[in-house]
Write a structure and sequence with these properties.
The protein is an alpha/beta fold. It is built from eight helices and eight strands. The chain has an eight-stranded parallel β-barrel with strand order 1-2-3-4-5-6-7-8. Helix 1 runs parallel beside helix 8. It binds phosphoenolpyruvate (PEP). Phosphoenolpyruvate binds next to strand 8.
Length: 222
């Protein structure tokens, strides 16, 4: 599997026009990338339009959450099947912002969502800040280690400490997330041994995101 770079746009941007512009600039910027799979995770409302825009070979679409049932009376929710039918391949689950702001985002609920994604062939990316959140999680699930102190703070986690956390996580595919930018990103692959990155703030700046992707593509060629 290639190095995975996942862009979490969170609740941004404000308009479809801006979402299309960001998407188009990333698509253009990563067209020669060989060793990285780029996963763009916009808000649900932009997924259909971006999916119709046509994905480059290295770009896949992801969602930022989903529900655990396939269909039915669940007002406001989006099912894994609906995402799958839109061409979505990945789903971020258990992000710390959801765990913080929505009381119902417990480990048990996250695990139900995970099962529902697997059932329809979507690839879940499970966000964890501590090892206990991995209880009962199979080794082949993609995990994103996202220390709370590093999320959206501009204070990326110490690379050596991140490496220790990565080693303690026994899953096969572990990403790092937290205050990444084009200066620090490659260290988490090269020095700390992560197999990918989850990027929030910097993924909203087209040029910066492309720079990060290129820096990682370069080291993985060596
Ligand atoms: C995130 O929210 O998953 C994240 C990594 O955010 P940021 O890059 O802004 O710290």
């Amino acid at each position: 599997m290639k190095i995975l770079i996942v862009a979490n746009w969170k609740m941004n941007p404000a308009s479809l026009k801006e979402a299309k512009n960001l998407f188009d600039s990333v698509k253009k910027g990563v067209r020669n990338i060989k060793n990285v799979e780029v996963v763009l995770c916009p808000p649900f409302v932009y997924l259909p339009a971006l999916s119709e825009r046509g994905l480059a070979s290295v770009i896949k679409l992801g969602a930022q959450d989903c529900f655990w049932e396939e269909s039915g009376a669940f007002t406001g929710e989006v099912s894994p099947r609906q995402l799958k039918n839109l061409g979505v391949k990945y789903v971020i689950l258990g992000h710390s912002e959801r765990r913080k702001y929505l009381k119902e985002e417990t480990d048990e609920i996250v695990s139900r969502k995970l099962g529902a994604c697997l059932k329809v062939g979507l690839k879940p990316i499970l966000c964890v800040e501590k090892l206990s959140q991995l209880k009962g999680i199979k080794k082949d699930i993609i995990v994103a280690f996202e220390p709370i102190s590093a999320i959206g703070t501009g204070k990326a986690f110490d690379v050596e400490k991140a490496k220790s956390a990565r080693k303690a996580i026994k899953n096969n595919f572990v990403l790092y997330g937290g205050s990444l930018n084009s200066e620090n990103a490659k260290d988490y692959i090269e020095k700390a041994g992560f197999k990918g990155l989850l990027i929030g703030g910097a993924s909203l700046k087209g040029e910066e995101f492309i720079k990060i992707t290129k820096s990682v593509d370069l080291i993985s060629k060596i």
